[in-house]
Design goal:
With 197 residues, this protein is α/β, with parallel strands linked by helices. The protein has a single domain, classed as Rossmann fold, CATH 3.40.50.300. Helix content is 53%, strand content 14%. It contains 9 helices and 7 strands. It has a 5-stranded parallel beta sheet, sandwiched between helices. Strand 3 and strand 4 form a beta hairpin. It is globular and about 55 Å long.
Amino acid sequence: MTILGLTGSIGMGKSTVAAMFADAGVPVFDADATVHQLQGPGGALLVAIEARFPGTTGVEGVDRAALGRVVLGDDAAMRALEAIVHPAVRAERAAFLDRHADAPLVVFDIPLLFETGGKRAVDQVVVVSARPEVQRARTLARPGMTPEKFDAILARQMPDAEKRARADWVIPTDVSLDDTRAQVARVIACTRAAQRR
Protein backbone atom coordinates (compact mmCIF):
# COMPACT_ATOMS: atom_id res chain seq x y z
CA MET A 1 0.00 0.00 0.00
CA THR A 2 1.11 3.54 -0.79
CA ILE A 3 -0.26 6.28 1.46
CA LEU A 4 -0.58 9.73 -0.11
CA GLY A 5 -0.86 12.64 2.28
CA LEU A 6 -3.14 15.29 0.77
CA THR A 7 -2.76 18.76 2.20
CA GLY A 8 -3.07 22.45 1.40
CA SER A 9 -3.85 25.68 3.15
CA ILE A 10 -7.37 26.95 3.70
CA GLY A 11 -9.27 27.80 0.51
CA MET A 12 -6.90 25.94 -1.80
CA GLY A 13 -9.47 23.42 -3.06
CA LYS A 14 -8.30 20.39 -1.13
CA SER A 15 -11.82 19.01 -0.63
CA THR A 16 -12.42 19.16 -4.38
CA VAL A 17 -9.21 17.26 -5.05
CA ALA A 18 -9.99 14.70 -2.34
CA ALA A 19 -13.35 14.08 -4.02
CA MET A 20 -11.53 13.54 -7.33
CA PHE A 21 -9.34 10.86 -5.74
CA ALA A 22 -12.44 9.20 -4.26
CA ASP A 23 -14.25 9.37 -7.63
CA ALA A 24 -11.24 7.56 -9.12
CA GLY A 25 -11.73 4.72 -6.64
CA VAL A 26 -9.01 5.66 -4.16
CA PRO A 27 -10.10 5.34 -0.49
CA VAL A 28 -9.82 8.73 1.23
CA PHE A 29 -9.53 9.33 4.96
CA ASP A 30 -10.92 12.81 5.63
CA ALA A 31 -9.43 14.15 8.86
CA ASP A 32 -11.76 17.19 8.93
CA ALA A 33 -14.87 15.05 8.47
CA THR A 34 -13.64 12.77 11.23
CA VAL A 35 -13.19 15.75 13.56
CA HIS A 36 -16.71 16.96 12.73
CA GLN A 37 -18.08 13.51 13.59
CA LEU A 38 -16.14 13.31 16.86
CA GLN A 39 -17.33 16.82 17.78
CA GLY A 40 -20.87 16.48 16.44
CA PRO A 41 -24.06 15.51 18.32
CA GLY A 42 -23.17 12.67 20.68
CA GLY A 43 -19.53 12.84 19.55
CA ALA A 44 -16.87 11.02 21.51
CA LEU A 45 -14.91 14.22 22.28
CA LEU A 46 -17.71 16.41 23.63
CA VAL A 47 -17.17 15.64 27.30
CA ALA A 48 -13.43 16.30 27.16
CA ILE A 49 -13.84 19.51 25.15
CA GLU A 50 -16.56 20.86 27.44
CA ALA A 51 -14.45 20.06 30.51
CA ARG A 52 -11.48 21.98 29.11
CA PHE A 53 -13.44 24.75 27.35
CA PRO A 54 -16.72 25.25 29.28
CA GLY A 55 -19.65 26.60 27.29
CA THR A 56 -18.36 25.50 23.88
CA THR A 57 -20.60 22.46 23.42
CA GLY A 58 -24.33 21.74 23.41
CA VAL A 59 -26.92 19.31 22.10
CA GLU A 60 -25.73 19.97 18.53
CA GLY A 61 -22.14 19.14 19.49
CA VAL A 62 -19.28 21.62 19.54
CA ASP A 63 -20.22 25.23 18.89
CA ARG A 64 -17.40 25.82 16.42
CA ALA A 65 -17.75 29.60 16.52
CA ALA A 66 -17.54 29.66 20.32
CA LEU A 67 -14.61 27.25 20.38
CA GLY A 68 -12.87 29.25 17.66
CA ARG A 69 -13.17 32.43 19.74
CA VAL A 70 -11.47 30.64 22.63
CA VAL A 71 -8.58 28.97 20.79
CA LEU A 72 -7.74 31.16 17.79
CA GLY A 73 -4.79 33.35 18.68
CA ASP A 74 -4.16 31.48 21.96
CA ASP A 75 -1.34 28.98 21.43
CA ALA A 76 -1.80 27.26 24.81
CA ALA A 77 -5.53 26.79 24.25
CA MET A 78 -4.92 25.48 20.74
CA ARG A 79 -2.37 22.96 22.03
CA ALA A 80 -4.85 21.82 24.68
CA LEU A 81 -7.52 21.30 22.03
CA GLU A 82 -5.09 19.44 19.76
CA ALA A 83 -4.12 17.17 22.68
CA ILE A 84 -7.79 16.14 22.87
CA VAL A 85 -8.49 15.85 19.15
CA HIS A 86 -5.34 14.43 17.54
CA PRO A 87 -5.16 11.08 19.41
CA ALA A 88 -8.81 10.38 18.56
CA VAL A 89 -8.22 11.19 14.89
CA ARG A 90 -5.17 8.91 14.82
CA ALA A 91 -7.28 6.06 16.20
CA GLU A 92 -9.93 6.62 13.51
CA ARG A 93 -7.20 6.70 10.85
CA ALA A 94 -5.84 3.36 12.07
CA ALA A 95 -9.33 1.87 11.81
CA PHE A 96 -9.61 3.25 8.25
CA LEU A 97 -6.36 1.52 7.30
CA ASP A 98 -7.65 -1.75 8.74
CA ARG A 99 -10.81 -1.45 6.63
CA HIS A 100 -8.80 -0.79 3.46
CA ALA A 101 -5.85 -3.10 4.11
CA ASP A 102 -6.09 -4.58 0.59
CA ALA A 103 -6.10 -1.22 -1.23
CA PRO A 104 -2.90 -0.51 -3.22
CA LEU A 105 -3.32 3.25 -2.73
CA VAL A 106 -5.07 5.36 -0.09
CA VAL A 107 -5.21 9.08 0.63
CA PHE A 108 -5.00 10.78 4.01
CA ASP A 109 -6.70 14.17 3.62
CA ILE A 110 -5.00 16.13 6.42
CA PRO A 111 -5.20 19.94 6.33
CA LEU A 112 -2.32 20.45 8.80
CA LEU A 113 -0.17 17.56 7.59
CA PHE A 114 3.14 19.40 7.94
CA GLU A 115 2.15 21.47 10.96
CA THR A 116 1.14 18.44 13.06
CA GLY A 117 3.93 16.06 12.05
CA GLY A 118 1.58 13.95 9.92
CA LYS A 119 4.20 13.61 7.18
CA ARG A 120 5.71 10.71 9.14
CA ALA A 121 2.52 8.68 8.53
CA VAL A 122 2.56 8.96 4.72
CA ASP A 123 4.75 7.80 1.85
CA GLN A 124 4.32 10.81 -0.43
CA VAL A 125 2.79 14.27 -0.07
CA VAL A 126 0.37 15.93 -2.48
CA VAL A 127 -0.06 19.68 -1.95
CA VAL A 128 -3.10 21.45 -3.39
CA SER A 129 -2.34 25.03 -4.33
CA ALA A 130 -3.83 28.15 -5.91
CA ARG A 131 -2.79 31.76 -6.34
CA PRO A 132 -3.13 33.86 -3.14
CA GLU A 133 -5.91 36.03 -4.56
CA VAL A 134 -7.93 32.93 -5.50
CA GLN A 135 -7.38 31.43 -2.06
CA ARG A 136 -8.50 34.62 -0.33
CA ALA A 137 -11.62 35.06 -2.47
CA ARG A 138 -12.67 31.44 -1.92
CA THR A 139 -12.14 31.61 1.81
CA LEU A 140 -13.89 34.93 2.36
CA ALA A 141 -16.92 33.59 0.45
CA ARG A 142 -17.47 31.02 3.22
CA PRO A 143 -20.31 31.69 5.69
CA GLY A 144 -19.08 33.38 8.85
CA MET A 145 -15.57 34.02 7.52
CA THR A 146 -14.00 37.42 8.08
CA PRO A 147 -10.66 38.85 6.92
CA GLU A 148 -9.46 38.79 10.53
CA LYS A 149 -10.39 35.13 11.00
CA PHE A 150 -8.79 34.25 7.66
CA ASP A 151 -5.55 35.98 8.69
CA ALA A 152 -5.57 34.18 12.06
CA ILE A 153 -6.01 30.81 10.36
CA LEU A 154 -3.25 31.55 7.84
CA ALA A 155 -0.91 32.53 10.67
CA ARG A 156 -1.22 28.99 12.07
CA GLN A 157 -0.50 27.33 8.73
CA MET A 158 2.81 26.78 7.00
CA PRO A 159 3.16 29.16 4.03
CA ASP A 160 1.98 27.71 0.72
CA ALA A 161 5.39 28.17 -0.91
CA GLU A 162 7.03 26.08 1.81
CA LYS A 163 4.39 23.35 1.47
CA ARG A 164 4.93 23.23 -2.27
CA ALA A 165 8.71 22.99 -1.77
CA ARG A 166 8.24 19.97 0.51
CA ALA A 167 5.70 18.21 -1.72
CA ASP A 168 6.23 15.19 -3.92
CA TRP A 169 3.30 16.40 -6.06
CA VAL A 170 1.63 19.80 -6.46
CA ILE A 171 -1.89 19.92 -7.87
CA PRO A 172 -3.12 23.36 -8.99
CA THR A 173 -6.76 24.30 -8.45
CA ASP A 174 -6.73 27.78 -9.99
CA VAL A 175 -7.15 26.09 -13.38
CA SER A 176 -10.13 24.31 -14.92
CA LEU A 177 -11.64 21.34 -13.07
CA ASP A 178 -10.64 19.15 -16.01
CA ASP A 179 -7.02 20.25 -15.68
CA THR A 180 -7.07 19.55 -11.94
CA ARG A 181 -8.70 16.15 -12.52
CA ALA A 182 -5.99 15.33 -15.08
CA GLN A 183 -3.32 16.06 -12.48
CA VAL A 184 -5.06 13.77 -9.99
CA ALA A 185 -5.15 11.01 -12.62
CA ARG A 186 -1.44 11.56 -13.29
CA VAL A 187 -0.57 11.17 -9.60
CA ILE A 188 -2.58 7.94 -9.40
CA ALA A 189 -1.08 6.52 -12.60
CA CYS A 190 2.50 7.38 -11.65
CA THR A 191 2.09 6.00 -8.14
CA ARG A 192 0.66 2.72 -9.40
CA ALA A 193 3.39 2.45 -12.05
CA ALA A 194 6.04 2.91 -9.35
CA GLN A 195 4.43 0.14 -7.29
CA ARG A 196 4.80 -2.26 -10.23
CA ARG A 197 8.51 -1.58 -10.61
